[in-house]
Amino acid sequence: MIEISTIILLISSVVCIYLLVIGIALIILAKRLGIFYQLRHSFHDTSVSHGGELVAHTLKEHGVKFIFTLVGGHISPILVAAEKCGIRVVDTRHEATAVFAADAVARLSGSVGVAAVTAGPGLTNTVTAVKNAQMAESPVLVISGASASILKGRGALQDIDQMSLMKTLCKFTKSVTTVRDIIPTLKKAIKVAQSGTPGPVFIEYPIDVLYPFDIVKKEIGLKEAKTFTQQITNWYLQKYLGNIFAGGFEQQDMTPLPVEIPQASYNKVQTCAELVAKAKRPIMIVGSQAVLPSTPPELLKNVLESLGIPCFLGGMSRGMLGRYNKLLMRHRRKDAIKDADLVILAGAVCDFRLSYGRVLNKKSKIIVINRDKKQMLKNSDIFWKPTVAVQGDVGSFLVKVSNNLKGYKCDEDWIIQLKERDEEKEKHNRKMANHPTEHHLNPMNVLFHLEEVLGDKTIMIVDGGDFVGTAAYILRPRGPLKWLDPGAFGTLGVGAGFALGAKLCFPDHDVVIIYGDGSLGFSIVEYDTFKRHKVPVMAVVGNDACWSQIAREQVPMFGTSIACDLEYTPYHQVVEGFGAKGMVMLDAKQEEETKVFEEARDIYKQGQCVLINVLIGKTKFREGSISV
Q1: Is the predicted pLDDT of residue 71 greater than 60, yes or no?
Q2: Under 8 Å between Cβ of 313 and 320
Q3: What angle (nearest 5°) sits at the alpha carbon of residue 171, between those of residues 465 and 355?
Q4: Which of 433, 435, 479, 619 could disulfide-link 445, Cβ–Cβ 3.0 to 4.6 Å?
Q5: The pTM is what?
């Protein structure tokens, strides 16, 4: 009798011999077929040599003119290829600035804005800016490098779980692990960014997808096969390499996919037109969604004027009606809402900016239009109820309503009543501007003088708290798409990035940043970026040596200014170290204020960056204005 242990040993030996034969056969077959060498040879015959070129050419086909970045080895192939194919690569001193710049391009160009950053800390540095783009509904494409797929989770340099980090911030996230997926993934991401409610998207490119074949082969760990184990390892690595590059450089369609824009139904348009026709005291609150493609801003301006409804403009819609249109209302919005019998929320959201909907009169008819259902109905279960809720594009909806209201005319007395209130508040503000402050200049007076100096082709970038909050009441945007603020997230630090993107989009416009001294600290180093890339901007800093937006409430409530105090730092001297012209305004007389602004403007017109450090005192203008 043969023992069971002997039988098991014999079976095990047969299995091992069988596996050995199969392994040797596979190695011989792979060598005979020349899979590895054929792949390498085919890549040398093509005009495209690496995945970075596929990324760049696809972006070029989608009309991308700028890539904002902070360089890193993971993404070098993309940047090199972008430069080669005519996309301007603009490198910043912080990754957040790169995303803010891409955000500005997205808002102003009507297309997607692109930022490319390296893996790990390069990507984590973008988080605040990406969240800001999400809440501002900006179609931004964030591209990041990553460690090689085969090394993920094994301790590679800057290797983290980037996908989990970005999924809550972006409409679309994808890790591209083969060269053949680069183009279709990029096309889909750009479409998603601009479709429906726009927002940021994210693509991760592992390093072995972007670099040339020979470099990846060299770095992947293939060695001379002196042992059977090394032969098996090489076979596996060759299969892995083959999967990455197989079919990667075959010709693919790079043209854009159609963008999907939600449209209101005919019945909704008709119902809303009837409500407008019956209203005696209508008002419209217009948000940023109104200026989204595909309705041109000039067409929307004509539509608002043809409707003749008094308008309060917010976000990117500020400036839509120019500086002094009779329909433009800038002050006492809460009173107007209380008295109105119809309120049209055209892209406006009932969040903290409208007291969560509590300011809406329950007796008023309310029409709300928004691409996003959640934003459209925010807090409607608690504080307010829409009469008609329209999920669709704001601009095209207003065009259709206007077409259904030919001959409609809003009550002139209602417009006059609101305008008188507006002018009354304006006079009050000018009166406050003339009050002397205990230290330095009255910030309101400074801003009124700035308003007089700025030209019609000026794009205003606002980045700050108290000083910028005051500026929003005094400065008048010159036209559509000529005012950029952070949006609902209230982010500080957007100034340099927004200005960079704006000036590149509109090089013939003046770009002026209104900074608070606190927010300036986030991005003053980007004056180095402006200088290197020959992108002139002008900045006005309200310097009160304080985080005044917080101190206004904290000091009366708690009796201390802890963590609110800064210094009267000579920021004008700081920027001179980066090659800009620095100017200071201390206790000037009114005519001298205007003279300093005019001198700064003239220097800026010559192509030089300018920063005016304006030392200001404190007023009671914005007491009780903090929003939480």
Answers
A1: yes
A2: yes
A3: 40
A4: 433
A5: 0.90
